[in-house]
């Protein structure tokens, strides 16, 4: 399954900020430390030089990835016509069969973050939620069996539990 090319404005800004930081701040610092380590002589046993070159390759790889990815991604802004239904970028409050309340935000694959309750639009829960409205029920296949959720609230502004 390929990752979707959708992203929220906030997610795009975060990736763009990381790219700029790596290019303008981190890479020049590491390049400078590698140059200093190289000037010390024998590079084959110079840990600072070896580590610095490795870190420089990691930074360059991430810069290439972010540059290409940001060009591919499509920023999706909430549309007022979406109100009342679940679409990309929505915050959704769900209740399971045991009356446990869960809160999710549907975001792009590049910005999902379990700690923030942000789930990828490509996930089974998100796919089941798309187009639904308050009081609808969804069922999701999980490793533990089918989970049933009722939609309690939908917003395109952050919700809290």
From TrEMBL:
Stretches assigned to the Transcription elongation factor GreA/GreB C-terminal domain: 82-156
SUPFAM superfamilies, alphabetized: FKBP-like, GreA transcript cleavage protein, N-terminal domain
Domain Transcription elongation factor GreA/GreB N-terminal: 6-75
Tagged with keyword DNA-binding: yes
Domain of life: Bacteria
InterPro entries: GreA/GreB_C_sf (IPR036953), TF_GreA/GreB_CS (IPR018151), Tscrpt_elong_fac_GreA/B (IPR028624), Tscrpt_elong_fac_GreA/B_C (IPR001437), Tscrpt_elong_fac_GreA/B_fam (IPR023459), Tscrpt_elong_fac_GreA/B_N (IPR022691), Tscrpt_elong_fac_GreA/B_N_sf (IPR036805), Tscrpt_elong_fac_GreB (IPR006358)
Pfam family, one: GreA_GreB
Annotated PROSITE patterns: GREAB_1, GREAB_2
Keywords: DNA-binding, Elongation factor, Protein biosynthesis, Transcription, Transcription regulation
GO biological process, one term: regulation of DNA-templated transcription elongation
Function: Necessary for efficient RNA polymerase transcription elongation past template-encoded arresting sites. The arresting sites in DNA have the property of trapping a certain fraction of elongating RNA polymerases that pass through, resulting in locked ternary complexes. Cleavage of the nascent transcript by cleavage factors such as GreA or GreB allows the resumption of elongation from the new 3'terminus. GreB releases sequences of up to 9 nucleotides in length.
Similarity comment text for this entry: Belongs to the GreA/GreB family. GreB subfamily.
The protein's name in its UniProt record: Transcription elongation factor GreB
The organism of origin for this protein: Providencia burhodogranariea DSM 19968
Lineage, broadest ranks: Bacteria, Pseudomonadati, Pseudomonadota, Gammaproteobacteria, Enterobacterales
């Amino acid at each position: 399954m390929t990752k979707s090319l959708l992203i929220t404005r906030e997610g795009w800004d975060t990736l763009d900020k990381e790219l700029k930081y790596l290019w303008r701040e981190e890479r020049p610092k590491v390049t400078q430390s590698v140059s200093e380590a190289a000037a010390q002589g024998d590079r084959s046993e110079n840990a600072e030089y070896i580590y610095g070159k490795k870190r420089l390759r990691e930074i360059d790889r991430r810069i290439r990835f972010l540059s290409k990815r940001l060009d591919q991604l499509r920023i999706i802004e909430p549309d007022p016509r979406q109100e009342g239904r679940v679409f990309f970028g929505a915050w959704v409050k769900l209740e399971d069969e045991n009356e446990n309340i869960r809160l999710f935000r549907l975001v792009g694959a590049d910005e999902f973050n379990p700690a923030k309750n942000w789930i990828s639009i490509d996930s089974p829960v998100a796919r089941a939620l798309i187009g639904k409205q308050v009081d609808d029920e969804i069922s999701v296949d999980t490793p533990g069996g089918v989970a049933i959720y009722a939609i309690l609230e939908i917003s395109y502004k952050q919700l809290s539990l």
